[in-house]
Design a protein that fits this description.
Elements: E1 13-17, H1 21-30, H2 33-41, E2 48-53, E3 70-72, H3 75-80, E4 86-89, H4 95-106, E5 110-113, H5 116-133, E6 137-138, H6 150-154, E7 161-168, H7 171-183, H8 187-196, H9 205-208, H10 211-225, E8 227-229, H11 254-262, E9 265-275, E10 281-291, E11 303-311, E12 314-321, H12 325-340, E13 354-357, E14 359-361, E15 369-371, H13 376-383, E16 387-391, E17 394-397, H14 402-408, E18 419-420
Parallel strand pairs: 1-2, 1-4, 2-3, 4-5, 5-6, 8-13, 10-14
Antiparallel strand pairs: 7-9, 7-11, 9-10, 11-12, 15-17, 15-18, 16-17
Helix pairs in contact: 1-12, 4-5, 5-10, 7-8
The structure holds L-homoserine.
Length: 425
C-alpha cells in the first residue's frame, strides 16, 4: 500500500519593503516563474509575494508587479497585516527601518533584512525583541552580500572555538583600491563607477570611511564571540605618525599603493576581530598591507573574502560577490527559503547576546608596518635598525610597536599613514 502524498506546504506570504538595488532583485526573482520552478525542483516552496512597500509608489522602478501584488506607501499598514507571515526589510537606514522591523516582529512576523547598519546600531534590542516575540530575525545578506558566511559560522563551524575572523567585507572600497592600484585611476572616478553599478551605499561615505565594514564586523563579532560590540568603538582609521590618519580608504594615496606594489604588497581595507583580554574583543577596520600573493592581497574588485580561524578546523575562507543586487538577493532569498523550512534566527542556538561587549584597539598588538614617506631618505635614516625592506620609497619595518615606530618617525610628516602589515596565516 502506498502512502498518500503529503499535502504541499503553504507558501510563506511575504512583503518586501524597499525597491532599491537589492529590493528589485529580490522581487524580480520572487515573481519569476522560472525561479519558482527551480525552487520547487529543490524540494522547497517558493514564498508568495503579496505586498511591496515603497515610500513613493508612483516612482518608476523598472519592475512590473503582477496585479495580485499590493503596492503601498504605508509601510506600517503592511507590517500590521495579519495575513502576511514575514517581512523583507531592504529600505536601508536605521530610523524608518528600525520602526518597521520592531513593529513587524511585535505583530508576530519574522523578518529578513540586509541592513547591517541597523543590526550594528540596534542589534541587542532587535535580538531581544525577536526572542520576546518568538519570531525569526535573519540577516545573512547583511555581511559579505551573496557569500554564505553567517550560517556556516553559527552552524557548520559550531564544533569549533573561533580564534579570529577577518576579511574584506566592503566591495566598494576593494573595487576602488584595486582600480587605483592596477590602472592608476582616480579615486573619484572609480567611486562614481561603484555607485553606478549599485555597489556603494546611498551615502558612499559609509563605504569609503570604513563604517559599512565596521557594521559588518559588529555582526560577525556577535556571532563569533557572543556579544554585540559597541560599533562606534571599532577603529576605522589607520594610525599616522602623529595621531590618526583619514578614516577608511580616504587617506590612501596612489603613491602608497605604488610603494606597496614595489615591495610585492597591496593595501586592502581589512576588518579584523579576535578575543582580547577580560572578555573584550580586539577589533578594527583599517587599511593594511598584505602580500599581493596572499588570499587577501589577491582578492580584487568587488569580491569579498572572509577568513575564519578556528580550532580544530584551522583557517576556513569564504570568497565571492560581496555587493550588488543579484548577489545580495541570493542571500535574502536563501533566508526566506530557510524561514519556509521553519528555520529560526541567524544566531541559531547561540545563547542570548550580552549587551554591548567591550572593544579594544586592535593596533596595540601590531608589530610590523608599511610607510611611504614623500622622500625615502629621511625615513630610512630615521628608522635605522628598524628598516626591514625598502623599494621605490616604500619602507617595511622590522617588528616594533607603534610607540617605538612613532618615536623613530618624529621627523616625518605627522599625517603620514602607518599601515599594519598583516602576515599570512
Ligand atoms: N556598499 C556595500 C559594499 C554593499 O560595497 O560592500 C554591500 O553590503
Amino acid at each position: 500500500m502506498t502512502r498518500p502524498a503529503p499535502a504541499p506546504a503553504r507558501p510563506l506570504r511575504i512583503a518586501v519593503l524597499g525597491l532599491g538595488t537589492v529590493g528589485r532583485s529580490v522581487v524580480g526573482a520572487l515573481i519569476d516563474p522560472a525561479w519558482q520552478v527551480g525552487v520547487r525542483a529543490r524540494g522547497l516552496v517558493p514564498p508568495e509575494l503579496v505586498a511591496v512597500g515603497v515610500r513613493d509608489p508612483e516612482r518608476p522602478r523598472g519592475i512590473v508587479l503582477p496585479e495580485r501584488v499590493r503596492r503601498s506607501a504605508d509601510l506600517l499598514e503592511i507590517v500590521a497585516d495579519p495575513t502576511i507571515d514575514a517581512i523583507v526589510e531592504v529600505i536601508g537606514g536605521t530610523d524608518d527601518a528600525g520602526i518597521v522591523v520592531r513593529r513587524a516582529m511585535a505583530s508576530g512576523k519574522s523578518v529578513v533584512t540586509a541592513n547591517k547598519a541597523l543590526l550594528a546600531e540596534r542589534g541587542p534590542a532587535l535580538e531581544q525583541a525577536a526572542r520576546d516575540a518568538d519570531v525569526a530575525l535573519r540577516f545573512e545578506a547583511a555581511v559579505a552580500g551573496g557569500i554564505p558566511v553567517l550560517g556556516p559560522l553559527v552552524s557548520d563551524l559550531a564544533a569549533n572555538r573561533i580564534d579570529a575572523v577577518r576579511g574584506i567585507v566592503n566591495g566598494t572600497t576593494n573595487h576602488i583600491l584595486s582600480a587605483m592600484a592596477q590602472d592608476g585611476r582616480d579615486y573619484a572616478d572609480v567611486l562614481r563607477e561603484a555607485q553606478e553599478r549599485g555597489y556603494a551605499e546611498a551615502d558612499p561615505s559609509g563605504d569609503v570611511e570604513g563604517h559599512d565594514a565596521a557594521n559588518k564586523l559588529a555582526v560577525l563579532v556577535r556571532l563569533a564571540f557572543g556579544a554585540w560590540p559597541t560599533v562606534s568603538r571599532i577603529r576605522v582609521t589607520p594610525p599616522a605618525v602623529a595621531g590618526d590618519g583619514a578614516p577608511g580608504i580616504t587617506g590612501v594615496r596612489t603613491e602608497d599603493l605604488a610603494g606597496a606594489h614595489a615591495l610585492g604588497m597591496m593595501i586592502r581595507l581589512v576588518a579584523r576581530a579576535e578575543p582580547g583580554a577580560d572578555g573584550a574583543v580586539r577589533a578594527a577596520v583599517t587599511p593594511v598591507a598584505v602580500r599581493e600573493s596572499s588570499p587577501l592581497g589577491a582578492t580584487g574588485g568587488v569580491t569579498n573574502l572572509v577568513e575564519v580561524v578556528a580550532e580544530p578546523v584551522g583557517r576556513v575562507s569564504f570568497r565571492g560577490p560581496g555587493a550588488g543586487g543579484p548577489a545580495t538577493a541570493s542571500a535574502v532569498l536563501g533566508d526566506l527559503l530557510a524561514l519556509g523550512r521553519g528555520a529560526g534566527s541567524t544566531w541559531g542556538a547561540l545563547p542570548p547576546a550580552g549587551w554591548a561587549g567591550a572593544v579594544t584597539d586592535d593596533l596595540d598588538g601590531e608589530r610590523s608596518w608599511l610607510l611611504v614617506p614623500p622622500d625615502p631618505d629621511p625615513a630610512a635614516a630615521a628608522l635605522g635598525p628598524l628598516l626591514l625592506a625598502r623599494a621605490d620609497g616604500a619602507v617595511v619595518t622590522r617588528p616594533c610597536g607603534l610607540a617605538d615606530l612613532r618615536a623613530r618617525c618624529a621627523g616625518l610628516p605627522p599625517d603620514l599613514a602607518l599601515y599594519p602589515v598583516i602576515p599570512e596565516v
